[in-house]
Structure formats: C-alpha cells, structure tokens
Amino acid sequence: MTKRPPPATELERCQLHVIEAARRLAHADEDSEDYHIKLDELFRAVELMEQAEASSKE
C-alpha cells in the first residue's frame, strides 16, 4: 500500500476532514447523543470546507 502525500492546501485538508467526519458518523448509533455530536461535526467540517473553497477561488 502506498502512502499518500500530506494535503497541500487548506481546501484539501478540509476535504479530508469532511471524509473523516462522515466515516465517524457512519459508525455511530442514530439514537445516541454521540450521533448528533458527530452530525454537528460533519456539518461544521462542510462549512469550513466551503469557506476554504471560496477563499481558494479569490
């Protein structure tokens, strides 16, 4: 297995954070408080990714 290089840009870091947050959410029990915490983390990660994307276009 080859190792990926580290993310080069803020947008790439944010994209990886969204993927990681989605994976954590996928493993959470929907009826638990932990699920809602992980869902909030995913929404926040998406918001940060959108901000990074907008900044990269400027």
Query: Low-confidence stretches at least 5 residues in length (pLDDT < 50)?
Result: none
The proportion of residues forming helix, as a percent range, comes to over 70%
Question: What percent of residues are in strands?
Answer: under 5%
Rg (C-alpha, Å): 13 Å
Shape: flat
Domains counted in the coordinates: how many?
1
Structural class: mainly alpha
- Average pLDDT metric: 91
How many β-strand stretches? 0
Helix segment tally:
2
Terminal Cα span:
36 Å
- One letter per element, helices H and strands E, the order comes to HH
Taking the sheet with the most strands, its summary is: none
Describe the structure.
The protein is mainly alpha-helical. The protein has one domain. The protein contains 2 helices and no strands. Helix 1 packs antiparallel against helix 2.
